TrEMBL record, chains A, B:
SUPFAM superfamilies: P-loop containing nucleoside triphosphate hydrolases (SSF52540)
Residues in D-glutamate N-acetyltransferase-like N-terminal domain copies: 44-135
Domain D-glutamate N-acetyltransferase-like C-terminal as annotated: residue spans: 141-340
Species per Swiss-Prot/TrEMBL record: Halobellus rubicundus
Superkingdom of this protein's organism: Archaea
Record-given protein name: DUF1611 domain-containing protein
UniProt xrefs under InterPro entries: DgcN-like (IPR011669), DgcN-like_C (IPR035086), DgcN-like_N (IPR035402), P-loop_NTPase (IPR027417)
Biological classification of the source: Archaea, Methanobacteriati, Methanobacteriota, Stenosarchaea group, Halobacteria
A Pfam cross-reference name: DUF1611
Amino acid sequence: MTGNADDAERVVVLAHEKFPERAKTATGVLKYADYDVVAVLDRDRAGTTAADHRADLPEVPIVESMADAPDADTLLVGIAPIGGGFDDSWRPDVRTAIERGCDVVAGLHYFLADDEEFAALADEHGVDLRDVRKPPEDLTVASGKSADVDAEVVLTVGTDCSVGKMTVALELMEAARERGVDAGFIPTGQTGIMIAGWGNPIDRVISDFTAGAVEEMLLEVGDDYDVLFVEGQGSIVHPAYSAVTCGILHGAMPDSMVLCHAAGREAIHGYEDFALPPIGEYVDLYEGLAAPVHEGDVVAGALNTSGVDGDEAARAAVDDFTDELGAPATDPVRFDADAVLDAILDE
Amino acid sequence: MTGNADDAERVVVLAHEKFPERAKTATGVLKYADYDVVAVLDRDRAGTTAADHRADLPEVPIVESMADAPDADTLLVGIAPIGGGFDDSWRPDVRTAIERGCDVVAGLHYFLADDEEFAALADEHGVDLRDVRKPPEDLTVASGKSADVDAEVVLTVGTDCSVGKMTVALELMEAARERGVDAGFIPTGQTGIMIAGWGNPIDRVISDFTAGAVEEMLLEVGDDYDVLFVEGQGSIVHPAYSAVTCGILHGAMPDSMVLCHAAGREAIHGYEDFALPPIGEYVDLYEGLAAPVHEGDVVAGALNTSGVDGDEAARAAVDDFTDELGAPATDPVRFDADAVLDAILDE
């Protein structure tokens, strides 16, 4: 899980009592990570496989504890309770993993590296404890060089938080790879970082370094791919998180953008006094704000229809969204991404 | 220097070898702070007064060292070397201040509170060491409530960094007070914080908390004033700092904005590949980005003409800027602020 995402690894994912519905990181890793997930820990579902619970997940065995897991080099905590604490019922699994020589990766507010028992045990066994919510110490301000990378840069932007910006970036990367395009992914949040095996948690960096932390990632891998899908965060009209969104926009300097929206969403989630502006206004805002730093158009859209019952209604919702946007759109989880990918690769 | 800016205090300002040209914090404090500056420390200019060096500064004595300073309760470090380090030639003054029972305030990258000698001495004498670049630990995300405060909120926004957003906010506050308006100031950077005696250094907070840290200040004092001038940071088109700008815009929810620009500036300072867009585009960007969260217009402009020789040429530059902006503008340092203040108070 360190350095390049292509390092082959064998990973066990902890998801006790929450797999799959309440284990978004675990299912994201199973669907999208390049490394091998060799087992899922869920004491309530031991003896089944991930595919038994959701058809789009692989045939990975679910076991009761780390003691029952096959050979591995990493344990990844794939769930987070509300508040981001560490559940002490996981302690024996983390202890066993360290004793078996596994690194342990988590995205909790509670830092494993600050836990005295784990820190001492990790030291003794020569393994790493990686808290992906903790940004690196050596970040700095952007130099304005992101646009110089060889790759075409595609940023997923949103009408709100939690509309699927990470999933869309990953789905589009996979669809591009299926066409033979050398496509990569730039993670900006904790789940994306766990899936990719590297990255900066942009929402946790010092605000002056927001763009710089994105730029650092672009400069690191931007010449290694033909197309890079950058995971966006928040929304440019979000009363709390727009700073992160704006820093990613100017730090990534995208050549094109994909506007992500959730079907039926009419107000900012958790801030219901703030109505979402019309789709066309988002396009103007994102393009207008990008242009003075680096020109980039919203060339396509992605609609999250997970809350819509039935493919027919979902198709109608996508059609409406396409009309409002004036550009190709899809739900890349439910339908195919062909027209959207055409629009991106034509750029 | 803690809590409310109205606490009466007697402050000594350290500005060794740099007063006044290279001591922006010291001169800012002398011009704008509500508390009493009782002496300036500059070993090269001892025996003179601040007014001897610049006509717009008060008759405050300059002395050689803290040992020569009159009775005081705070020592403020009013200069910062490149890199933000602590100059060891200041150590005797800081030591003497602590021994005399003064709090010490600094905006350096080097934190006084982490200096073993100062920390022990401060503990012994019961005084505080305040590093204003260190944000409070208890910040959180914005709740979206800034617009509920009683005060009319005016934000200074910029075409670039270092165009005078803090100075304009302070000049407009003073001009408003001269008209009898109960006006206040919300500081967002280290110099502003030292002048006001409180505040959050927005560029140093975690990016997710950018808007929240501004909102916290608005909610703290927003019902105590009729008009609040919020110090903006950076520029919405800055390749490195736009995240901070955007977070302040949505965190402050201004009722009106004053666009600040430096005469002759054509490219982003330090990022010369990035040309400034036309003035009208800034107006559209700031108003367009503000509107989905809280409607606010750019009602006036402020042009920094400190680089322009002579009042006649400066007046011509202000006239040109006024035409481009399509709203009243001035240089509030060189000329009066009447028309700009009328535009703000009419809102």
